[in-house]
Amino acid sequence: MINIGTCGFPRPKTEYAQFLSCVEVQQTFYQPPRISTLENWQRQLPPEFEFTIKAWQLITHESRSPTYKRLKKPLSEEERPQAGSFKPSDVVQQAWQVTLACANALKAKTVLFQCPASFKPTRENVANLESFFSGIDRQQLNLVWEPRGAWDCQLVKDLCQSLQLWHVVDPFTTQTVTPEQCYFRLHGRQGWRYQYEKQELSDLLELLPENQSAYVFFNNIHMLQDALLFKKLLENR
Description:
Helix content is 36%, strand content 16%. It is built from 9 helices and 8 strands. The chain has helices spanning 13-16, 27-30, 35-44, 57-60, 90-106, 123-135, 153-163, 198-205, 223-236, and strands at 2-7, 22-25, 50-54, 110-114, 142-146, 166-169, 182-186, 214-218. The radius of gyration is 17 Å and the shape is globular. The two termini are 14 Å apart.
């Protein structure tokens, strides 16, 4: 019930699947691949292999974000102010439909909404967040949210409860407000070049809920080695 993987494939997909049974897809955030491409990925890997995906950046990030450089088709002048921050706009709604199609193609159970630090807890942003998650067709997906920046813990907890969201954190820097629904993303304690020590990963085991599904994804340069060590510790527990 503890799903362990990496943020993106550090090895060819079929090789990766020999060691780990879950991955967080990054391409769906920057520029979603063709649906046929994602369906092919799903067919290549074992039936029990699980994909989670990052929601397309048009939902979460405004058009000034440098990540928009990876869009194949730039937004028009009319579309640019409609993008990001969960705005009640056609651009955001269409981006959700694309994200949903990607999730279906990969038979994903979980979609991550990663917000930039510039998405602050203003009244407008909170209202847009509530309107978005209250209005979309979830199709029984787990929706997980990674706020960054100065968000009050109680506000995040209230939003997660009312909108049925999992709180995404790096557990070595932030405590989750949804401890029974954990989605951990580990970026390296001293930057992305960091490699976790065995004792640190043993401590991480204690943060995971019992008899509940949880995700642990590594997003550092040693992501594969750390994920495999953590998997071994979990199996030996």
